[in-house]
Amino acid sequence: MAVVRSSRFPRRGIILAAIIVAVTAAGAPAASGTAPRLDPDDPAGAWAGYSIGAPAQRSAPVPAGGVAGMDVSGHQGVVDWPRAWADGARFAYVKATEGTGFRNDHFAAQYEGAHAVGMVRGAYHFGLPDRSSGAQQANFFVDHGGGWSPGLLPGALDIEHNPYGEICYGLPPERMSAWIAEFSDTYFARTGRHPAIYTTTAWWNRCTGANPTFGARNPLWLARYAPAPGELPAGWDFQTIWQFSNHGVLPGDQNTFNGDHRQLASFVS
């Protein structure tokens, strides 16, 4: 995310200058549409970035010029939050829900743990557009931990390769775009904030038909495991958060907020 910007927040130039350890060509899902399949009975479900590739062989250093953060799900279980704070994490996204029937058993402990050490925190929802409507999933998310109030990161919609079937959930681009818009509009109606959208450039451009209409209102949480953010999904000219690796000094996935601490505080206000 080259710079943090929203209707509530002025744009400032921030350069991500550090070199990150590259992680093979699996930094984006294969163009053929192949992606790992998950066990539908996995008690921890999917997670942000499951489809991007295998863990990095070596820890990736945090890019310079931003604020270090992390995201976790039920796969991390009990998290050592004081250690994560000591290692530099200042914000965290925690998976709350998936579809309309899945809740992260560790959500409450993880969400409160992040808050207890002083991190800015937010919740994310793993969207399954072939299961139920965007409105139903947004309401399920808000009702089970995904709400927003000042001081929290806006709830995030994780929309990426289908963990359990066809890459675009069997939806053509116009229906996928409509589903995402319904989720976003419902979340806004419930909370007063538009959700962040977590996605990869490859998935977004393929499965929404490179829809450019979301960049004006939804913060981008970009997933790309590489030395630089690279090409962004259609409609965005910067990312607010960049998930740059799934292995590093912090538990879970490694992220950087595209701004300084003052800008992060403004973003969540």
From TrEMBL:
KW Cell wall biogenesis/degradation (keyword) present: no
Pfam families per record: Glyco_hydro_25 (PF01183)
Gene3D superfamilies: Glycosidases
InterPro entries: GH, Glyco_hydro_25, Glyco_hydro_25_AS, Glyco_hydro_fam25_subgr
Signal sequence range: 1-30
Keyword terms of this UniProt record: Glycosidase, Hydrolase, Signal
Reaction catalyzed: Hydrolysis of (1->4)-beta-linkages between N-acetylmuramic acid and N-acetyl-D-glucosamine residues in a peptidoglycan and between N-acetyl-D-glucosamine residues in chitodextrins
Protein's name in the database: Lysozyme
Organism lineage: Bacteria, Bacillati, Actinomycetota, Actinomycetes, Pseudonocardiales
